[in-house]
Design goal:
single chain, alpha/beta, 2 domains, 6-stranded mixed sheet, 4-stranded antiparallel sheet, 10 strands, 45% helix, elongated, disordered C terminus
Length: 363
């Protein structure tokens, strides 16, 4: 049975994808040269060309220096950007590349370079070309890793850049299947690069990509996985709002730079809300960022055990210390910054006198 024909993205659809960004001062487009990001650049240029006034567009290609073809691909992007009337810059990830965790390190470097580029051109948003297929893969990967509700909500259309700095990360193509983007480029005879690492089975995403057709045959296609992410995202937003309200209700006076919750009221809160309160407090006052859910769950079990038994509790996690004060009738749960670790001084080396053996200790 022949595969159904895939439609390209129409000009009206393209306008809708970017309509929320019309008042932005400038936009940075992350364009590697692959089909997804090339389509992002083409669609954004098509949208911008219909406006009398609108944000300036700058395409940024990050050359990670991991493949010999990357320089040529960056030049091809620059050539296409010029044809579309878009400014373009190529940025390179320099320095030693890690042997382990290379995809994550490359991702971190890309976001850092994109954020720096956005600040230089006065852009308030960085646009990436994550698609419906990417969303589905992200859900499965996080499910494999045992993520909680926050992780399974996967990617959002708009979020803060991982590097911070007040720049928004926007994924306008998150509801568009990759096949439609390829159809759009082919309809206009626009060339794009093919990155073989996307099929390299040493990487988790590439292996999952190979399994997706089989899952789709069982009814678990990219659309259903993305629908799950949207529904979980809705629940995540509700719980996040509830946690904020609960924090205001449980918070008690504490020293500057610390967070404290009422011990008695804490005991009446649902587990999910308590985990969020502890996680927020530790991330806020600690120095290691967000806490892994499994570690947070372990901390909560130990804290609850001590609280119910009326025993003292003090434990460190992610650069913060959680302390239980008072007794069952009252007290606080205090989260404060852990003191800096002291480096142990190396022991001085002693030299035996020439010609004499070092004496033994006797009992």
């Amino acid at each position: 049975m022949p595969a159904p024909e895939v439609s390209s993205v129409s000009p009206a659809e393209a306008a809708a994808l970017f309509s929320d960004l019309i008042d932005a001062p400038a936009l940075v487009l992350a364009v590697s040269g692959g089909p997804d990001s090339t389509a992002l650049m083409v669609l954004a240029a098509r949208w911008r060309a219909t406006l009398k006034r609108g944000p300036g567009l700058t395409a940024i290609t990050v050359d990670h220096g991991l493949r010999p073809e990357s320089r040529r691909e960056a030049r091809d992007v620059a050539r296409l950007a010029k044809m579309l009337g878009i400014a373009h810059r190529t940025l390179r990830w320099t320095g030693k590349k890690p042997k382990a965790g290379l995809p994550q390190a490359a991702r971190n470097a890309r976001y850092r370079l994109l954020a720096n580029a956005a600040r230089k051109v006065g852009a308030s948003h960085v646009l990436t070309a994550h698609t419906l297929d990417d969303q589905a893969e992200t859900v499965i990967i996080r499910l494999m890793r045992g993520s909680g509700l926050t992780g399974l909500a996967a990617m959002q259309k708009t979020s803060d850049m991982p590097t911070g700095g007040g720049i928004s990360l926007v994924r306008p193509l998150l509801d568009i299947p990759k096949a439609r983007l390829i159809a759009t480029l082919r309809a206009e005879d626009t060339p794009f690069a093919d990155d073989p690492t996307n099929r390299d089975v040493q990487f988790t995403r590439a292996r999952l990509r190979g399994l997706m057709p089989q899952l789709a045959e069982e009814g678990l296609d990219a659309g259903r996985l993305a629908l799950l992410a949207r529904r979980l995202g809705r629940a995540e937003a509700a719980l996040a709002a509830m946690a904020t309200e609960t924090a205001d209700m449980l918070s008690v006076k504490s020293a500057p730079g610390t967070v404290a919750y009422d011990r008695v009221k804490y005991g009446f809160m649902p587990d999910e809300i308590v985990l969020r309160l502890l996680g927020r407090a530790i991330a806020a006052v600690g120095n290691e960022g967000p806490v892994e859910l499994a570690k947070l769950e372990t901390l909560k079990v130990a804290l609850d055990t001590a609280k119910n038994a009326g025993k003292p509790f003090r434990r460190s996690l992610a650069g913060a210390i959680v302390t239980l004060t008072g007794d069952k009738s009252g007290g606080k749960i205090v989260v404060e910054r852990a003191p800096a670790r002291r480096m142990a001084r190396p022991k001085a080396l002693t030299k035996a006198r020439p010609g004499r053996a070092k004496g033994r200790k006797t009992r």
